[in-house]
Structure formats: structure tokens, C-alpha cells
Amino acid sequence: MKANCWTGRNSVEVQDVPDPSILNSRDATVKITSTAICGSDLHLLDGYVPTMQKGDVMGHEFMGEVVEVGPGVDGDRLRVGDRVVVPFPIACGGCASCRAELYSCCENTNPNAGISEKFFGHPTAGIYGYSHLTGGFAGGQAEYARAVFADVNALKIESDLTDEQVLFLSDILPTGYMGADMCDIQEGDVVAVWGAGPVGQFAMDSARVLGADKVIAIDKETYRLDMAAAQGYITINFEDVDVRSALLDLTGGRGPDKCIDAVGMEATHGATHVHLYDRAKQAVRAETDRPHALRQAILSCRSGGVVSVIGVYGGLVDKFPAGAWMNRSLTLRTGQCHVQKYMKPLLGMIEQGKIDPTRVITHRLPLTDAPRGYELFKNKQDRCEKVVLKP
Ligand code: NAD
Ligand code: ZN
Ligand code: ZN
Hints:
Blueprint: E1 2-8, E2 11-16, E3 28-36, H1 39-45, E4 61-69, E5 83-86, E6 89-90, H2 96-99, H3 113-120, E7 126-127, E8 144-147, H4 150-153, E9 155-156, H5 163-166, H6 172-181, E10 190-194, H7 198-209, E11 214-219, H8 222-230, E12 234-237, H9 243-250, E13 258-261, E14 273-274, H10 293-300, E15 306-309, E16 316-317, H11 322-327, E17 331-334, H12 339-351, E18 363-366, H13 370-378, E19 387-390
Parallel strand pairs: 10-11, 10-13, 11-12, 13-15, 15-17, 18-19
Antiparallel strand pairs: 1-2, 3-4, 3-8, 3-19, 4-5, 5-9, 6-7, 14-16
Helix pairs in contact: 6-7, 6-12, 9-10
The structure holds nicotinamide-adenine-dinucleotide and zinc ion (2 copies).
């Protein structure tokens, strides 16, 4: 089959790779109908995740049709012919983390738990197409993928919603929603969101759905800020103004009640980002002239407010303002999204028309054009916001 593979720093290529097969009794094989490129894929593309190997199949946002199931798959939950969206973290459904709905921290699905532990202190769940640190599972930017613990994870789509309406239930819609959910939004709250990429846009939509009074978008890409403005959100271009002062001006000098970081490592391009597990055993350190989104969020948030971090971090970040966090009673919440917790309620909201996930799609390309999709998305060319690939 054809699959989009990582071939080195800043390079992906569509290659012929072996078809996936059922390896464990609760696996299913999915014939992919739609898949997408995520901001998290850019962290892999950048080459700052040292556990990528040449030839690894990329992609953790995918959906399609079940074409084969293992003998252990519960037939009441999943059968051949079902149309499914596959969440990016692989959950077993039975461990203590899964029972607490912390699916991305599943304790049973990462065969490389030892590597994960070296990075993060404890192992994290397996993730598709996300390097060997999260299990080395082949990703979904391909014609077929192996879905693991398929009957626990895959969400069946039984209505006639289009692929584009449900595809993002695999990741970015639940992620944006979790970013807002972790804010515990109260009446009258002002919520500021760093990053107007697809994840940030969904965090903004979710903040509004959850009752935020005002939503503020911060980015430097004017076309992305325009997309946010079109939804009625206030925008701040961090290249034009001092973000903290602008936020204080908008909030009577107090700062936003809730701040969401939907940027992650991109803000530093790995520059102030230090890997615990660095192959050369040397910390990667460099200066950056770009403002650091997380630091800005902590320093801007009102005292007693919540800083919710859904942007992805891999190692250590310099200059974390622990003093502001501690002295001003801030709450910090974060996580790789526990997608399985949010998929069904969000499917309901899509059906009711409360959230329209298709609004972020700007590019639809055949899978064979994946490298061009990465280029457009990474370099923000052609007003690119979100690329959907069709195998
Ligand atoms: P994206 O790259 O399209 O968007 C990031 C945006 O942040 C860009 O528009 C960029 O211009 C902006 N930005 C950069 N520096 C900034 C700064 N200092 N202040 C404000 N904005 C800044 O990516 P995306 O797909 O929207 O993903 C965003 C983040 O969410 C990534 O880190 C991604 O890895 C992460 N993510 C996390 C999860 C999760 O489960 N927690 C899931 C999906 C994606
Ligand atoms: Zn993603
Ligand atoms: Zn589990």
C-alpha cells in the first residue's frame, strides 16, 4: 500500500510499504477514507523528536471502513463494514488510567514504555504515527492502518455525516474541547487562546460553547486571526503589540480568567526546548527571539486563574515562571487529549450543529500529495489552516 513516511529531518515521502495485518486478537484493519496533517506532525517533521526512524508511517488523525477484525474483537461493538473514526491515543480500557478516563496515559498500550519513561518519568499510551517513544505504531496517512484494541477505541459513525464533519473527532476537536474543558469556564469569563491553528480554533469554539463571555485569539498569522475574527473572537497579533499589555487593556487590568496554550513547542522551534533523552547526550540549547506562548500565558493570566496547556511539549522548557504560578495561585492543567472521553458528546454536538469542524479545512489533497500538504501547513502558505488527505 501507499503511505506517507518520515524520511529524515524536514522530509516526508509517499512510499510503498507492506499492508498492515492483524497482530493481536483485538486489532482491526481500517481502510482509510480520510486522514489529516496535525500540528503535532510538524514536531516530528522538524526532527526534534529523536525517536523517529526513517520509514515510519506518519499520521494519527484518520477514519475509514473496518475491513478485517481479529478473533477477540467484540462483535457487538465492532464488525467488518463499520465506518469508524480512530482516536489517536491507544487505550486498553481496563487499566487504572483508562478507568479514570485518562486514556492518553493508558498503562498497557505502549510497547516502548521504557523509552516513554525516560522522557516523562512514567510511561504514556501508545499513539499512532508518533515515533517510537509512543510505541512505534504505524500511522494513518496511508491506505490502511491497524487499529489496536479496536473495539474499545474506534467510534462507529452510524449517521450520514460526511468524513469531513467527523474526521477531527480523532484528535483536534476533542483536544480543543479539552483545552476549554480544563478551564472550568464560569459565567463572564474571558478566555485567551495562544495559537489560531486548527487546535486553537477549536479551543475557541469550545470555550464559547462552554459559556465564555469573551474569547481572544493570539497569533501572528493574519489569515488565521481573520478566521477567528470571522467567528466573533477578539484578535491580537503578537508581532504588532505587546500581548500582555493588550490582554490587560481588554480585561480592566486584571488579565484573562482562563488562558489556553494551543501552540506548544512550535513557539520555540525546539530552540529553548531541551530533550531529556538526547542521542548525543547533549542538551540542545539556543536563543530564540520569538515570544514563548506558555510563559506569556502564565504571566498574563489573572491571579487565581487557570492556564490550560494543550500545545505539545516534549522535554524541558527554559524559564518556566514558577514564581508567577505559585505566588498568584494559578492552576495549571494539561495533557495529551483523552480523546475517547470526548468523542461521543462531541459527535452529538456536531449532529446538533453546535460545532462545525469543517470550518478549519482549507486544503483537500490526494494522499500522494502529502509532502506538499506538509509544506503548505508548515510554512503557512496559501492561507493553509488544515489539510485533509484522501487515500
Ligand atoms: P499549528 O502549527 O497549525 O498552529 C500553531 C499556531 O501557533 C500557528 O498559527 C502559529 O503561528 C502560532 N504561534 C506560534 N508561536 C506563537 C506564540 N508565541 N503566540 C501565539 N501563537 C503562536 O498547529 P495545530 O495543529 O493547531 O496544533 C497546535 C498545538 O497543539 C501543537 O503543539 C500540537 O502538537 C498540539 N496538539 C496537542 C494535542 C493534545 O492532545 N494535547 C493534540 C493535537 C495537537
Ligand atoms: Zn494531532
Ligand atoms: Zn489502559
